[in-house]
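During the reporting period the student researcher (J.K.) took over the structure-prediction task from the postdoctoral fellow and processed the backlog of single-chain submissions. One of the processed entries is reproduced below for the supervisory committee.
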Amino acid sequence: MFFAIAALAVLLVWKIGAPIARFGGALMVVSSLVFIVAGDPIGPRLVVLVAGVALWLAGHFLAAYKARCWRSRLAENLVVHTPLRYIDPVNGGECRQNRREARSEAAEPEREPSDEARRPRVDHFAEWERELDSDSAPAPVQPRRPANRPTARARSARPSRGVVYGKRAAKLAATVATRTVPGARIARSALRFLR
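J.K. obtained the following structure tokens:
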């Protein structure tokens, strides 16, 4: 009976332990910080804070062992840049490379040209000139050869105007926010450190 209960507990931890540990750890950290800010004594809440961080990290370790990839950059950077790297369940380079490839594929998926784009274009002006030049019946329409246009892969090497202007607008908004919102400069520095 004991072994059946232990096996069930191990199965539950393996299946649903990682998300529950991550959520529970994050909830413990946030609640302890809120209570510290509200005026509770720091000593007991610090214990809850450290326990929450440990539970959150344990959840990420379990998820990393299962998926062979980190679910959070914060957890990955915490492990890679500390002595925890010796027990890292994931080879960090592989995971980062997979993330970069997935991001580039998601940014611009390859599209097939539509039926209108496949149809040869008719130069109506050239047809009209031919009709004016010849007194006889109009010559049959010769489809114009498509100009040497860059393929979809050649175009995807360069970002579109929308992407460029979107990035510029996001940078401008981030700069304005960091100058006007108190504490945003510190958060931005922390985010840059984690990247």
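The committee noted the following: The chain has nine helices and no strands.
J.K. will present the remaining backlog at the next meeting.
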